[in-house]
Write a structure and sequence with these properties.
Length: 237
């Protein structure tokens, strides 16, 4: 039960870096946020070794929460398009972490975990992340809805959202063209999903240079940091 949990090891696996901290059950950091570069190739074994190095000097924790950049169901990774994709098919990474660190672990999509930490808990809320790829999460009255890998849905005849507005697209297109694309994407999201609020996170969110509607907010990883705590509170385990 959550009343016996005192602290959570929260890990965010990204295409460029792996980040971690330890939080108390109120979401307060017990150790500074630390990060290491994502290994290349980013196989399960290499990611695990990076995590072991990253948390070696961390204080004690009772549970582990992981945000993962791909499709995750019941703690099993099915896709990892921005990592070593072929190595991650049907990998029970939560079990790997539990076996390695001796603590119960949960793994969910990284946008899902950020969404848990950000949303107000009222109405239909959407979380998107702009980074190596394009992450999405949907929550209704604070509860996660089934994950959709919108990143891999075509937005043009030849490109998915990942290819259209991901980090490689930004580097190729430059600031002006990329922002024009983001405006197009936001228009599509508004029309298709009719969200009450939209939150935009990820490393490239700060590159948005146009005014946003009142129900759209740019957020930081630190604002979303207690998603790892809320994951365990939500499951009630």
């Amino acid at each position: 039960m959550t009343d016996t949990i005192k602290s959570i090891l929260a890990i965010d696996i990204g295409g460029t870096s792996v980040k971690a901290t330890v939080l108390d059950m109120e979401g307060k950091q017990l150790v500074d946020y630390q990060k290491l570069p994502t290994p290349n190739p980013a196989t399960p074994e290499a990611i695990l070794e990076t995590i072991k190095t990253l948390v070696a000097a961390f204080p004690a924790y009772d549970r582990i929460s992981v945000g993962f950049p791909g499709y995750v169901k019941n703690n099993i990774v099915y896709t990892a398009p921005n990592l070593a994709a072929d190595s991650w098919k049907e990998i029970s990474f939560a079990k790997t972490l539990t076996d390695t660190f001796g603590k119960p672990a949960q793994v969910i999509n990284d946008a899902d975990m950020q969404g848990l930490g950000i949303v107000s808990g009222k109405g239909l809320e959407m979380m998107v992340t702009l980074g190596t790829g394009f992450g999405t999460a949907f929550l209704l009255d604070g509860k996660l809805l089934p994950h959709l890998e919108l990143a891999h849905h075509p937005i043009t005849k030849s490109k998915t959202y990942d290819q259209y507005i991901g980090d490689k697209a930004y580097l190729k297109d430059g600031d002006t063209k990329w922002n024009e694309k983001i405006q197009r994407v936001l228009g599509i999201l508004k029309t298709v999903f009719n969200y009450d609020r939209l939150y935009i996170g990820g490393g490239n969110a700060k590159k948005i240079n146009f005014p946003l509607e009142d129900n759209i907010k740019i957020v930081t990883n630190k604002e979303a940091i207690d998603g790892g705590v809320k994951l365990w509170k939500t499951t009630g385990e």
